[in-house]
From TrEMBL:
KW Membrane (keyword) present: yes
Name used for this protein in its record: Wall-associated receptor kinase-like 9
Alphabetical list of InterPro entries matching this protein: EGF_Ca-bd_CS, Kinase-like_dom_sf, Prot_kinase_dom, Ser-Thr/Tyr_kinase_cat_dom, Ser/Thr_kinase_AS, WAK-like
Keyword Lyase: no
Annotated ranges, domain Protein kinase: 149-425
Signal sequence interval, chain numbering: none
UniProtKB keywords: ATP-binding, Disulfide bond, Kinase, Membrane, Nucleotide-binding, Receptor, Serine/threonine-protein kinase, Signal, Transferase, Transmembrane, Transmembrane helix
Bilayer disposition of the protein: Single-pass type I membrane protein
GO cellular component terms, semicolon-separated: plasma membrane
Amino acid sequence: MIGCICSYGNYSQRSYRSCRCNYGYRGNPYLSGGCRDIDECEEAEGRNPCGEGYDCVNMAGSYECRTRKTKTLAIILGLSLGFGLLVLAVGAWRLYKFIIKQREIKRKKKFFKRNGGLLLQQQLVSNEANVEKTRVFSSKELEKATENFSVNRVIGQGGQGTVYKGMLVDGRIVAVKKSKAVDEDKLEEFINEVVILSQINHRNIVKLLGCCLETEVPVLVYEYISNGNLFEHLHQDDENDDYTMASWEMRLRIAIDIAGALAYLHSAASFPIYHRDIKSTNIMLDEKYRAKVSDFGTSRSVTIDHTHLTTVVAGTVGYVDPEYFQSSQFTDKSDVYSFGVVLVEIITGEKPVSFLRSEENRTLATYFILTMKECKVLDVIDARIKDSCNVEQVTAVANLARRCLNLNGKKRPNMREVSKELERIRDSQLHVQNEEDEDTIEINFRYSWNDLVTDSSSSITTTSSSHRTL
């Protein structure tokens, strides 16, 4: 028996047994299981036999004193463990973000260097007087301005890229053009053109505010023009008729604005700049319907040809100069041809290419030249302006358009001549007289204006008369 101990002996030839309970036990040692363990912890009657800060734990025949485990300690341990895990998680997250940020910084630096950022900085240092005119935006600025290039911000899309409407931190509304691709071999020329075009300040040219070179392809930032482009106003559906285009005076003013801008680019700018993609969709209209020429090749590479800066772009079907198409040599007269097509659009309201016309007259230029040869210009004037327009002015502009569309580039006027001629048409009282030879048109101006253009089928003779200046 564990709870008791017995001793045996003999007395007077009789054996006997003397038993007692072991320490920590109590009871009758002579009965089986009679010695029972004493619970010293309970018998203390509220007094802790182990003392303060310890717990009494009953054991067989004894008791143990164990350090007391309080709820506060458990809470502290739990909080410590939780905080440690939180710190570990936050540290891991920050490390991850740091790694991602470093990768993004390296990526932006790579794009900045590849897109000619270092070259642009050198250009700015060498041209400190115009530093403020060229702004290099960060990708973060433009992402914020366009809500991370949201589809809801798209205001234009084409083969060259997508244009987004954005708002800079200073409140300015801008058009952000994100190109689809870039020729890495031509980045140096691209940067040269960005610097030059950012210095252009003409009221009829959309201002290039700057660029961003931290993206995979360069992003260009222009001033925002609110009234869309000329093509939309000339060719929208009948049910949404544009009454602005119902005025010949408005159309003539737009033509003069375009011609003035191109004349500036060709001859008044620091270097001659050829647009190479003149078309009605690249003519923007502001809130007062003043024309602004846009998108002249800055998102594309350029080449230096002696003193002329030209963009390496094929152009748009219906506007491309046939002479350039055959020879691959672009000149200022190629822009003149494209402008001639835009003039015809303004006069006729017809699209530059239409499958509604016969195959031989599918392009507007061909159709118009045939009409002029047949002296039927009045038959092709846009119905929206036909009844209210100055027929003499329209006829004079039509003849100018025909000169611009001459297949021989050398016989076309330059843009400065075109601009001056349009201004004279606007400011002059014209009298158009049909001669016996239907192919000859004599135009008399209040101001002196002499010009002679002869081709295989018709001639335009101009005579001048002197009048008092108004």
